[in-house]
Design a protein that fits this description.
- It is globular and about 30 Å long.
- The chain contains two helices and three strands, in the order E-E-H-H-E.
- The longest helix has 13 residues.
- With 86 residues, it is α+β, with helices and mostly antiparallel strands.
- Bound molecules: zinc ion (ZN).
- The site of zinc ion (ZN) has 6 residues, from loops.
């Protein structure tokens, strides 16, 4: 069963300076401000039209997200998402 309180709204700034919206499942609860709607599928959704961009859909992305949550929690909460620079 998906647990919506563990899905974090993440935006990845890729090498082309787009912001890609992604929903990442993590191992801890996240505050309502930072949650996203898990789509059907393995827990990821990607923003439209991202041809040519390589986004790390992997455990690495989850690690990075959790690290950002730890290190930059207040900033992320204020934005409403976790910002990751690739
Ligand atoms: Zn991109």
């Amino acid at each position: 069963m998906p647990q919506p309180d563990r899905y974090v709204s993440v935006k990845i700034e890729c090498h082309s300076k787009h912001l890609h919206d992604i929903c990442v499942e993590v191992d801890r609860q996240v505050p309502p401000d930072l949650r996203c709607e898990p789509n059907a599928g393995p827990g990821y959704s990607r923003g439209g039209g991202s041809g040519g961009c390589s986004i790390p859909f992997s455990d690495e992305l989850k690690e990075t997200t959790m690290r950002e949550l730890r290190d930059n929690f207040q900033g992320s909460k204020r934005r409403g998402y976790v910002l990751i620079h690739q």
